[in-house]
Amino acid sequence: MARKSGSNGEKTAKQLREAATVLFAKNGYAAVSMRQIAREVGVQAGALYLYTADKQTLLFDLMDQHMQDLLQAWEGRTTPHAIAPIDQLECFVRFHIRFHLPRADEVFISYMELRNLNPENSKVIQTARSKYEDILHKILRDGQADGTFKFVDTRVATFALIAMLTGMNTWYRDEGRLSLDMVEEIYLDLVMSAAGTKR
Amino acid sequence: MARKSGSNGEKTAKQLREAATVLFAKNGYAAVSMRQIAREVGVQAGALYLYTADKQTLLFDLMDQHMQDLLQAWEGRTTPHAIAPIDQLECFVRFHIRFHLPRADEVFISYMELRNLNPENSKVIQTARSKYEDILHKILRDGQADGTFKFVDTRVATFALIAMLTGMNTWYRDEGRLSLDMVEEIYLDLVMSAAGTKR
DNA sequence: GTCTATACGTCGATAGAC
DNA sequence: GTCTATCGACGTATAGAC
């Protein structure tokens, strides 16, 4: 008997996250008002504060959830963990593309709205991002150590490859001329070539 | 005798552009107020409207000037224009890095604030961006045609390489462990490797 | 050319009825 | 759980004095 009749709090909470994700990605955190979000959810602005402490916390929670999902999805991947660097790199590229592409809004927010987080929240997100970069960096170092890869600098290569892969989100469209499978192969070829190796 | 004594409009106009560039890059267009900009310039908010029609026009002018500078700088480059694709690609990579790196704020704004331009202004900037992408795309197609490059898809490669190169702006710091010259060589190696060719 | 003053709207967030 | 009403602050932009 904990819940009153007619209540639908869980549904509203979910709608809030979804509406905020779409609006923040489209217009930017600072340009979106709580009233706009409330209108999208179908409640009054005041009602949103039942589900989030304030606007800043709402943004942080979206970004934090995204980064946690990303790291957990990598940990929970089904491909074998103990494989050769070249196979790890292929695995990472495919994972990155397939994780990021269907989450265009979340990715956009996580990369663009760091500056609108307060310092402590910003630090949390940047730490999570570093963890993700470290995953790729370790793969590159391992492959460099056994002679598979031929990077001039693995740290720079880490940044360069992630930027290259994530950039796909800015142009890829489902209805475009290339299927997801094709794009995946194209980027995989670019990465492997850049690494100085071939599949 | 056209100018009254004590006037310094040209200086104020320049300060306005510079203050807006720094503040928009740091906090985002929507999060920055005209009052903030005015404070930085050292005048009252109302005085800014002597130098810009409104806030939207101010943002557009900054972005438009940046894109025009970029395209004109490429046109005015001193290296020979009629050279082999492999040399053109090297030239483009070095140009891109050396143009973008000292303009971190302008680049950031031009890539992040498109969504805050009204539709017609947005179209102008996107057209200029397409022109720049077409420069690289033509180089890649030429090299592909004569067998120098081995891309699976030159259109995707264009996006991928530009994203990779521009991503440098997010991590490079003058006081970091790598000099500009070193980073330039590192990225050049990545690009040439990705192209399936070597210098 | 720059100022003060201000119009007028919207903001985030809260209080209290239902 | 959601509503209406509202607070106090701040937003862009303009008018008119100097």
Annotate the secondary structure layout:
The structure is a homodimer of 199-residue chains.
Chain A: H1 9-27, H2 34-41, H3 55-75, H4 85-100, H5 104-112, H6 119-145, H7 154-166, H8 180-194
Helix pairs in contact in A: 1-2, 1-5, 3-5, 3-6, 4-6, 4-8, 6-7
Chain A binds a DNA duplex (18 and 18 nucleotides) through residues 4, 6-9, 12, 33-35, 43-47, 49-50, 54-55.
Percent helix among the residues of chain A? 55-70%
- Which structural class do the helices and strands of chain A define? mainly alpha
Q: State the end-to-end distance of chain A.
A: 60 Å
- Kindly provide the name of the CATH class of the largest domain in chain A: Mainly Alpha
Radius of gyration of chain A: 20 Å
What fold name goes in the CATH topology slot of the largest domain in chain A? Tetracycline Repressor, domain 2
Q: Encode the helix/strand succession of chain A as letters.
A: HHHHHHHH
CATH superfamily of the largest domain in chain A: Tetracycline Repressor, domain 2
Strand content of chain A: under 5%
Oligomer: homodimer
Figure out the total of helices of chain A.
8
Q: Could you give a short account of the major beta sheet of chain A?
A: none
Which two chains form the greatest contact, residue counts included? A-B, 37 and 38 residues
- Global outline of chain A: elongated
Task: Give the strand tally of chain A.
Answer: 0
Uncertain regions of chain A: pLDDT < 50 for 5+ in a row? 1-6
